[in-house]
Amino acid sequence: MVQFNFNANESFEQLKDRWALEVGRFVMAFGNIEANTYLALRHMPLDPICAPLIEANLNLKPRIEVLIVIAKARGQGPWLLFADALEKIGKLAAKRNLIAHNGVGFDVYVSAAGEYYIEQAISNAKKRQFAQKKSNDSVLFEELIAHREEAEALDKQLGTALMDLVKELRLSGAEDDSRKKG
Fold first, then answer.
1. CB 39 within 8 A of CB 13
2. Which residue of 61, 122, 166, 178 is 20 to 30 Å from 140, comparing CA positions?
3. Are 124 and 104 in contact (CB under 8 A)?
4. Between the CA of residue 20 and those of 6, 14, 25, 27, what are the distances in Å?
5. How far apart are the C-alpha atoms of 55 and 53, rounded to whole Å?
6. Is residue 38 a contact partner of residue 66, using CB atoms and an 8 Å limit?
7. CA pair distance 64, 33, nearest whole angstrom
């Protein structure tokens, strides 16, 4: 028996179009998140390490790790909300790489009962193979929607937390003081 996780009567173009919208929205949310991490580095007061980090063009994961350490060191209010958003983003970032750097294709695997499954998924083309079970290195359409929704929510959470931090810094005058020292 062969089972499909997609409508086999749809054309490949129709299937790709459904995926393209969700991938695009997911990538857009992560683009905003990436931009906000650089913006955060520009506005972190009293941290002389931030300017060189922008110039170093760190990948997202180490940039997030540095920002979490800085935010947790502040240890209060919007700083903790900011750190919380960054920690969640860090967990989703692995899926970001899989989704952003691979195309939609078909995975074939066979269950323990000997049933064949053909699934449309985003998976690492280098690792795509006939397997005994679904790979963790793939994302089904329903999973993509859930990841996109999470990325959009985290984009909003991070943006809101960052705006609150900038307001707090401006009200306290800390941002202006750190700019005078630089």
1. no
2. 61
3. no
4. 15, 10, 9, 10
5. 5
6. no
7. 10
Residue type, 139: V
Neighbouring residues of 161: CB distance < 8 A, sequence distance ≥ 6: 78, 81, 82, 85
CA–CA distance, 85 with 157 (Å, rounded to integer):
6
What size, in residues, is the chain?
Answer: 182
**pLDDT of 51 over the 80 cut:** no
The rounded distance, in Å, linking the Cα atoms of 93 and 99 is 10
Over residues 79-118, the pLDDT tens digits come to 899 999 999 999 999 899 899 999 888 877 777 788 888 8
Tokens of 73: 């060191």
Tell me the pTM.
0.81
Non-local CB neighbours of 57 within 8 Å, separated by 6+ positions? none
Scored b (16 or more CB within 10 A) or e, 97-121 reads: ebbeebebeebebeeeeeeebebbb
- What value does the mean pLDDT of the chain take? 83
Alpha carbons 142 and 38: distance in angstroms, whole number: 31
* 26 burial via Cβ count (<10 Å: 0-12, 13-18, 19+): buried
Two tokens, residue 149: 């929704």
